[in-house]
Automatic annotation (TrEMBL), chain A:
GO MF terms held by the record: metal ion binding
UniProt binding sites for Fe cation: Y240
Record InterPro entries: Ferric-bd, SBP
Highest taxon listed in the record's lineage: Bacteria
Record key words, sorted: Iron, Metal-binding, Periplasm, Signal
Protein's recorded name: Extracellular solute-binding protein
Signal peptide as annotated in the record: 1-23
UniProt cross-references to SUPFAM superfamilies, sorted A to Z: Periplasmic binding protein-like II
TrEMBL record, chain B:
Membrane topology listed for this record: Multi-pass membrane protein
GO biological process: transmembrane transport
GO cellular component terms, A-Z: plasma membrane
Subcellular location: Cell inner membrane; Cell membrane
Protein known as: Iron ABC transporter permease
PANTHER family named among the record's database cross-references: INNER MEMBRANE ABC TRANSPORTER PERMEASE PROTEIN YDCV
UniProtKB/TrEMBL annotation, chain C:
Organism expressing this protein natively: Phyllobacterium pellucidum
The protein's name: ABC transporter ATP-binding protein
Pfam family, one: TOBE_2
Keyword annotations: ATP-binding, Nucleotide-binding, Transport
Record localization: Cell inner membrane
Main location as per UniProt: membrane
Gene Ontology CC, one term: ATP-binding cassette (ABC) transporter complex
């Protein structure tokens, strides 16, 4: 009992010593009738995800239509909550999840080191994904990407009054107007806080903290606060949520600031202890299929690394946006500093 | 001379009280002491390398963010206590001692508001009083034709938080004071009048001092509730940009978790709670105030006369703020597109209902888990509380008072602290409890035990011990007596305690939030998760389902003839 | 051998010893009254017999078998006793019939037999019309009878009564005393009856046991106890009496503090030096003239006189400041302050060794 409790604590002590197995990525696989039959026999797949719940449920719906007889249990929470939960479960020997997906790239480095993932490469990923958007050992691949964007209510703020740059946000006229998600909760915001603190320095956040910003948790939430009209301007938030709200007809406009827009990559992987290994394999391959990726783009507003995905009219293509990339390996040691600085400047 | 054993063998009367006592001691110790042990253990454990350390306690006094969280939490709790007391006391007086119309309904409404989970109330107030999208502010702006930067109220403030919590804590003060006023014998007041005291003097010098202990005790409970509450601050304080201690402890679980610091940060909360409870007990236990149970005549009723309308207005505005408006806001949000939409035919929609009932895969599981756990917890807690309070009030086993202490102890353990303790205790493969509903059952049983025990033991002291002794001497064993005689006499109290625990369980969030996994989702947790992603419509639908189901269960429990017994006439 | 035996029975709560080595034997079929002021340990003794509390020392034997000792206690339900409580302890959720039938059902008796026995006892206690009522719907006296019926129906080896009449009003109480005695004569259960009311004890008991401060002061038939109290306490507690303390004079007389010498017809003046004399109020002869006796007589002054309908109650002060209470017929009306002569018939004076 003691040993096990301590192993739980080992998880607690953060990113502990690595014991990774570096192997060659396994050979790509395709969805075969045998795989489909085996998956059907298992009857169910459990998907831990940080994607917006409506998008994830829609995806599950489409999967169920395509492969009837396999139920999808969607467990949606913020990236850090998903991570915390899988950590608690694995350190106590509970294996509920089959496929996992979060928007914090650091997590997958950690899972990989812990040896919690099953390497597998769907044919589609092998054929079409850029090399730096998948794990060289085949443990995970970039299922989705999205930007963390500035956006505003076009009915509450005129276009010429809207900010153009990150620095603009420090203007007194935006005081009381902004909403922002939390890096302790959202992987997307953790990433964006990291890149912006490198780009603009912590003094920037210190000043931003004085703007009386409404603090929410998940990066899905600021766009919803815009939609409600609770605030006129979001400092960060998922681009895909904003796309969906614009599609619903909400008067919201996105700003891609001159300094650049932070990109969050959402990896997906199959867990080693997946209770439904075949269904997991099938679902994992399905996640990277053109169907699923196109759905993510159309309905979910997510960016895809699948080259054949057609972006909707009116959306600024990635190529036209200045992207701020982050390196998970550099972010990882900074997490505690980011959190404590953030609490210092924003109060929570 | 024959031996004892032979004599005992005459009839089947083997006394089970010792084994029962031993078993209960074991169960209660595991429920209460184990999490506290791990809490203490982890508080001395380093988060970074393992090994014993005092760093966590040093951080407790050195870390300004923790100190600030504690300071704000205490200030908030005091504010809630004060506000609850100021609002509830006059209201209790109006209901208990004046000719205000509709007194019974007012009492019922206030009692019913116990059922509302505080986190749902907080969300309702987000809908009502968020500075820009809040319905109140929208109406305010449109009535006075103000621009979008103007607002009347802002719930995302320290004051807003106090207000939103007080809405759900004032019933504690109200109930205690109203009951005390019911019991203040009117001859005490008559005595003052006969000595020449005018009615205001009598009120000031006799009535108020007599109910003062109830007022203080109720206020302390309100303070305690506020201090240990997680849901409302998580919903309202975080957007306002500050932590209270419960949310701060919760944030320590974010990656990378700092369990040792969380455990150490939880300990002062435990100590403050114990101090407050002791204070409350000593206030209520003072001599002279305990004679409140006198039977001398009906309470005197003050005629309001021309003040009647002012009183009605006062009570109505309190009820509107605490019950009517939040419920209306929840109803409106459940049936319209987004919060800010006006209500008309084009905005009415069932889309949130469709989403919750048919598209959102967690709903069914969560509803099933919630009601299963509510049922199991209520049943287990009532049973344990029944036996423990029997052993304690009848002092049939030496040392049984220890059981009473154990059963009351969890009241001093805030939910979030218990959550931490239970996670540390059961998140290991020996028990395999984390990730099952059993860990939640343990948590809920621990949390609800004090309430159940309190209700049962006061019910027990109302049953004359001779009624049980009569059963024993007629030849019934201790358990048989408990079953045949005591239990039926306690039936109404048992049903009441059961309902109380059931309602308490399905609205629990603060311990639950740390202990659920995918397969053990509860409605309260999905409400919290949905709030994090801003899905207010879905939350309101779930809230309505939760409330409707709670009321239904309580209603049914009180109507089933087997449980509710009508021929009771406890004159004995 | 007696049926119920208490042998050196001791019970203490913490440092407080409430029953201090009580010895008592009760023959089968007898009704014993434990009589004493509140706090004398009588109720505790009863509860020890019932098995509600364990004994700290000594033994209780029923029919020769030990049921309580410091080594263990047979639980109440295994003693085949029954008890009538001060509060009656009727179960408010059961009808009269159910209350009475409960003990029989516990004994796994067939339903038909239960019904028959219950009907018999309800008839004997005149409750048969009330069988379907709930206790809350009965008067105090009816409740008392239900309580009796419930206790009697199981045919206990020993019946225990704890101040059973103290909650009744005066008239009913007197009636119930005779009822209890009648039922005892009818059923002849070995009975232990606790009361603080001497009249109740006198009416009902075969044997009265006077208890004081955890000990038995005296036990005997009602006549014994009244006529021949062994101690000052018993004399005072049972019926009104005057106690005149003094010292031993010779073998048959006592020199009282007032200087009065009382020849005592019974009791023993054989105490070492200090002795007391007990004489009942109504045994003292009061007259306004010298009564011609030269012993056992003294002169005194009336200090109080009360008219009580059937008689007058006098308080007379005698030499040495001692007060003597006595009664006289209504027609003997002596005003306060007048001198009177008192005569203490020697055969009524009882010397009490201290």
């Amino acid at each position: 009992m003691w040993k096990k409790a301590l192993s739980a604590a080992l998880f607690a002590s953060g990113l502990a010593v690595s014991s990774a197995a570096f192997a060659e990525a396994p050979a790509p696989y395709q969805i075969t009738p045998e795989l489909e039959a085996a998956a059907k026999a298992e009857g169910k797949v459990v998907f831990y995800t940080a994607t917006d719940v409506a998008v994830a449920e829609k995806l599950a719906e489409q999967f169920k239509t395509k492969y009837p007889g396999i139920d999808v249990q969607v467990e949606r929470a913020g990236s850090e909550r998903v991570f915390q939960r899988i950590g608690q479960e694995y350190s106590t020997g509970i294996y509920n999840a089959d496929v996992i997906e979060t928007s914090d790239a650091v997590h997958f480095e950690y899972f990989k080191r812990q040896g919690w993932l099953t390497p597998m490469v769907p044919q589609e990923v092998a054929d079409k994904w850029p090399a730096d958007e998948r794990d060289p050992d085949g443990n995970f691949a970039a299922y989705r990407a999205h930007l963390s964007v500035l956006a505003y209510r076009s009915d509450l703020m005129k276009e010429e009054e809207a900010p153009k740059t990150w620095e603009d946000l420090l203007d007194p006229r935006f005081k009381d107007k902004m909403v922002k998600a939390h890096p302790g909760y959202s992987g997307t915001v953790m990433t964006s806080t990291f890149v912006l603190s490198q780009l603009l320095g912590w003094e920037y956040f210190e000043k931003l903290g004085k703007q009386n910003i409404m603090q929410v948790q998940s990066s899905t939430e600021p766009p919803k606060k815009l939609a409600q009209g609770e605030r006129a301007l979001e400092v960060d938030g998922n681009e895909y949520n904003v796309f969906r709200l614009i599609d619903e007809g909400k008067p919201i406009k996105i700003i891609y600031p001159d300094e650049g827009t932070p990109l969050a990559v959402g990896n997906a992987a199959v867990l080693k202890q997946a209770p439904h290994p075949n269904a997991a394999k099938l679902f994992y391959a399905y996640l990277f299929s053109l169907d699923a990726q196109q759905l993510n783009s159309d309905f979910g507003g997510l960016r895809s690394f699948h080259p054949d995905v057609k972006e909707k009219e009116g959306r600024t293509p990635l190529s036209k946006i200045k992207i701020l990339h982050s390196d998970p390996a550099k972010l990882e040691p900074e997490i505690q500093t980011i959190k404590s600085n953030y609490e210092k400047y924003f109060g929570t | 001379m024959t031996s004892i054993a032979q004599v005992q063998g005459r009839r089947s009367g083997i006394d089970l009280s010792w084994p029962t006592f031993a078993l209960l001691s074991l169960i209660l110790s595991v429920l209460v002491l184990l999490p506290l042990f791990w809490l203490a253990f982890y508080s001395f454990r380093s988060d970074t390398g393992g090994g014993a350390t005092l760093d966590n306690f040093i951080a407790l006094v050195a870390d300004p963010t923790l100190l600030r969280a504690y300071g704000l939490a205490i200030a908030m709790a005091l504010g809630v206590g004060l506000l609850s007391c100021v609002v509830a006391t006059p209201m209790a007086w109006l209901v208990a001692r004046t000719d205000l119309p509709g007194r019974r309904i007012i009492r019922m409404l206030v009692t019913a508001s116990f059922v509302t989970p505080p986190f749902l109330g907080a969300i309702a107030y987000e809908i009502l009083a968020a500075p820009n999208s809040g319905l109140v502010n929208i109406i305010y702006r449109s009535v006075f034709r103000l621009d979008s930067s103007q607002y009347l109220v802002n719930i995302y403030t320290f004051g807003g938080l106090i207000f939103a919590i007080a809405c759900f804590t004032f019933p504690y003060v109200f109930t205690l004071v109203a009951n005390a006023l019911d019991k203040v014998p009117s001859d005490l007041e008559d005595a003052s009048s006969i000595l020449g005291g005018k009615s205001m003097t009598t009120l000031r010098k006799v009535t108020i001092p007599l109910v003062l202990p109830a007022m203080l005790a109720g206020t302390l409970i309100a303070i305690l509730q506020a201090l240990t509450m997680f849901g409302s601050p998580a919903i309202l304080a975080l957007p306002a940009g500050f932590h209270v201690i419960t949310t701060k402890i919760w944030s320590l679980f974010q990656f990378p978790p700092r369990l040792g610091l969380a455990a150490a940060a939880a300990l002062p909360l435990l100590i403050i709670t114990i101090i407050l409870l002791r204070a409350q007990k000593s206030i209520l236990g003072r001599k002279g105030y305990t004679v409140l149970g006198g039977k001398s005549g009906t309470p005197r009723v003050t005629e309001l006369g021309r003040w009647k309308w002012a009183a009605i207005l006062f009570v109505f505005s309190i009820l509107s703020l605490t019950i009517l408006l939040p419920y209306l806001a929840i109803l409106k949000t459940a049936f319209t597109g987004t919060v800010g939409d006006p209500i008309n035919l084009s905005t009415l929609t069932l889309s949130h209902w469709r989403f919750v009932l048919f598209e959102f895969s967690a709903t069914q599981l969560a509803l099933r888990n919630t009601f299963l756990l509510g049922f199991l917890t209520a049943t287990a807690v009532t049973a344990i509380a029944l036996i423990v309070s029997y052993l304690v009030t009848r002092r049939s086993v030496p040392g049984s008072r220890f059981l009473g202490v154990l059963a009351t102890a969890p009241v001093a353990i805030p939910g979030i602290v218990l959550g931490v303790g239970l996670f540390l205790s059961y998140a290991n493969p020996t028990f395999q409890l984390y990730g099952t509903i059993w860990i939640l059952l343990i948590a809920f049983m621990t949390i609800e035990l004090p309430a159940g025990y309190q209700q049962m033991s006061s019910a027990f002291s109302g049953v004359h011990p001779e009624l049980e002794e009569a059963g024993r001497i007629m030849g019934a064993s201790r358990l048989r007596t408990l079953w045949d005689i005591t239990a039926p006499l306690l039936r109404t109290s048992v049903v009441a305690a059961w309902c109380f625990v059931f309602v308490g369980t399905i609205r629990e969030l603060s311990a639950t939030i740390l202990l659920t996994t995918a397969n053990t989702k509860l409605v309260s947790v999905i409400i919290y998760d949905l709030n994090e992603s801003g899905d207010l419509g879905a939350i309101c639908v779930l809230g309505i389902i939760l409330l409707a189901a709670s009321f239904a269960v309580v209603f049914v429990a009180n109507r089933v003839p087997v449980l509710g017994g009508s021929q009771m006439n406890a004159r004995g | 051998m007696a049926f119920l035996e208490l042998d050196g029975l001791t019970k203490s709560y913490g440092s407080l010893t409430v029953v201090k080595g009580v010895n008592l034997s009760v023959d089968q079929g007898k009704l014993v009254c434990l009589l004493g002021p509140s706090g004398c340990g009588k109720t505790t003794t009863l509860r020890l017999i019932a098995g509600f509390a364990p004994a700290n020392g000594g033994e209780i034997r029923v029919g020769g078998k030990v049921v309580s000792s410091s080594r263990g206690t047979v639980p109440p339900e295994a003693r085949n006793m029954s008890m009538i409580f001060q509060s009656y302890a009727l179960w408010p959720h059961m009808t009269v019939f159910e209350n009475v039938a409960y003990g029989l059902k516990l004994r796994r008796m067939p339903q038909s037999q239960v019904t028959e026995l219950v009907r018999t006892i309800l008839t004997a206690t005149q409750l048969i019309q009330l069988a379907d009522r709930y206790p809350g719907e009965l008067s105090g006296g009816q409740q008392q009878r239900v309580s009796l019926a419930r206790a009697l129906v199981i045919k206990p080896e020993i019946l225990l009564l704890d101040e059973p009449l103290s909650n009744l009003d005066a008239n009913l109480r007197e009636e119930m005393r005779f009822e209890i005695r009648r039922l005892h004569d009818e059923f002849r259960y070995t009975t232990v009856y606790v009361t603080h009311d001497q009249a109740e004890a006198m009416t009902t008991a075969d044997i009265i046991v006077v208890m004081n401060d955890g000990r038995i002061e005296q036990s005997g038939s009602p006549e014994d106890i009244y006529e021949r109290p062994a101690t000052e306490f018993v004399a005072r507690f049972i019926g009104g009496t005057n106690i005149l303390s003094g010292t031993r004079n010779d073998k048959e007389s006592v020199l009282c503090q007032s200087g009065l010498v009382l020849r005592c017809g019974n009791g023993t003046a054989d105490g070492t030096t200090k002795t007391a004399v007990s004489i009942r109020h109504h045994d003292i002869e009061l007259s306004t003239k010298p009564n011609g006796a030269n012993t056992n007589t003294t002169i005194g002054t009336v200090t109080r006189q009360i008219y009580l309908g059937s008689h007058r109650d006098y308080l007379v002060s005698i030499a040495g400041g001692e007060m003597v209470r006595t009664v006289a017929p209504v027609n003997v009306a002596i005003p306060v302050g007048q001198e009177v002569w008192l005569h203490f018939p020697p055969e009524k004076c009882r010397a009490l060794a201290q």
